Amino acid sequence: MFKEYLRYLLGRGQVRIILAIRSVLLILVLAAVPSMQAGGAVALLFVLLVLAFLGTYVANGYVIRSKMDPKRPVELPQYLVFFFLLVLFTLALFLLLNFLITPFIGPETKAVFEKYAEDPTKPMPAELTRLYLITPFLMGLVFYLIIPVLFAKLNIVQGLKALPSCIKRSDYVVAAWTPYVIMFVPTLIMFLISGSEEAVTSFFGQIVILFVLFFSLTSDIFLQYPTYYLIRTKEEPEEPTE
């Protein structure tokens, strides 16, 4: 199914154009970071570049999703309204998950965090390392399970109603979590070696950085794959017989 998805993307020439623009914008954003202290026009230019960079994700999301279901093409106004509501829902879900996770952080870990915050230059304690690895990973699993269903329905309420039946499908869970785990591995490795400058600047470290950048530039493509999988594998209702 993933090969079929890639063929679908290759047939959407706009995707390649948007990815090229996104890559150029990322280079410009990184180049503008050292000049941020100048303020004024440079700071305004940096903000505009960041907004344009983020806008490529909105545009690419629409291009990928618009023709995914040939029987139900998506119009731009419909997608923009859905995307705005999706952003609000995602923020609410993030706050909810953070609220649910906080009670599991014991007082010892909180004390370690406060001590580390006083001098962040010191090596990160093992407790915080585990916390910073496990928490985002678990949140990502939840997001990658829910968001594709919402994209498939293009409606928050209908997506939430369809969610229970979708997560009962082991094939969908595999389709949703496999891309996420693949993308998370380079980030995990980068996090683990970030404390060693030699490891980061080594050939291996540079390869890991390239993978992190690649997945950052193509994360929306991987996120839309479970949506494509849901739409192309849904069971069509049987026609009533007369």
TrEMBL record:
Domain of life: Bacteria
Keyword Manganese carried by entry: no
Keywords: Membrane, Transmembrane, Transmembrane helix
Residues passing through the membrane, by range: 15-33, 39-59, 79-101, 131-151, 172-193, 199-223
Keyword Transmembrane: yes
UniProt name for this protein: DUF4013 domain-containing protein
